[in-house]
Amino acid sequence: MQTQLERYTQRLIDEQCAKPGKIAICSQNDRICRFGNQDFVKLGQQIIQELDCASVIVAEPLHPFPFLLLFRAPPGLAALVPRDSESRSSLHDIPLIRHCQNPTDFLSKICTALRKRKGCIVENIGLISHGSLTVEQSYIAWSSLLHATTIKYFEDLLTTGPQLSEEKQVIIQYRNSYLKPFDTASFPFLPRLPDHSQTIISEMSLAGQATVQLGLVDSFFGNISCVSANTLYISETSARLDELQCQIDPVPFDGSSTAGITASSELPAHRAIICATGCKAILHGHPRFSVVMSFFAVPGTSEDVCRIDSIPVVDGEGGVGGLAESLPRAFNLTGDKAVIVRGHGVFTISNTDFGEALAELAIVEQHCRDTYFALLQERYHF
């Protein structure tokens, strides 16, 4: 168990999610195990004992966006309601816990929030999440909180402008120091998609690793597929995109096996896109500025599709929602290789290889990032 706690801690650091030295993970089975910052460990142990849950993560994000959201919120606001699809489906809302001098009252407020929700924003601490059965559950919840609060913050900032002293400087520093150009050419993809199943899986695994490494998706989100003959190879539901080697399902198009039971919930959308476009590979990520800018898309002039400049944007929910209809229609109508789903993420396609699909994903995110900061400059003189 101790090794597992250390591994998840390192993931939070490697994925540039949390500050080194400001992370604590606690878990319990027959006893409580703990790893990380001692002050945070103490709080995590208290929460586990109060909730009788399996795991708790207490960590300060690498970037201060959750804190900025809390400080921007009206004093009486108890929770934030992000509009991105991951939050709507799993988090619902995000409780805000403001600091109080009495440690007992402070702990009580945190535990009251966590009894109803998977995580919360806590003043002077960061994000706290819990899992009822595994450490992985608290890790996924913490990642979801970070994703949701980042998107919520940048959406609010573009809508209302800076409201706090030094807020403008924080964003300028983040843009200049953290947001680097994407390098997709360094990944050794094959020039054409293979036919052999094991080589297909290797190419999909590389695509997943590259997508996570470039920050175009968090490791537990997004999905990938590739078609060969009459089989659709697709990542499993809740698969880690950077550890896909044993988490890919071969799903026959004729429905002759039950392999699709464990496949990604986006399987209907992937299958519909392939049938409509004839593409061979699909990559779906949740790049943050693409999601943020999707809320500001405007109706196009020549087709019944909203756009961010030239990039099509559609509506629809994942799983059994409307994406299996809206995505194929947008790809066919526009002829583009990338489509943004409002509040959700980006789907890219390729007829040749995953290198092209990854490059398209990076191009869309870079354009949305550039557009975002251009609008911020235009509206609020950043």
TrEMBL record:
User: Could you tell me the superkingdom of the organism this chain comes from?
Assistant: Bacteria
Q: Which UniProt keywords apply?
A: Lyase, Metal-binding
Choose one Gene Ontology CC annotation of this protein and give it: cytosol
All copies of domain Class II aldolase/adducin N-terminal, residue ranges: 202-372
The molecular function terms in GO held by this entry are: aldehyde-lyase activity; metal ion binding
| A Pfam short name | Aldolase_II
Specify the protein name. Class II aldolase/adducin family protein
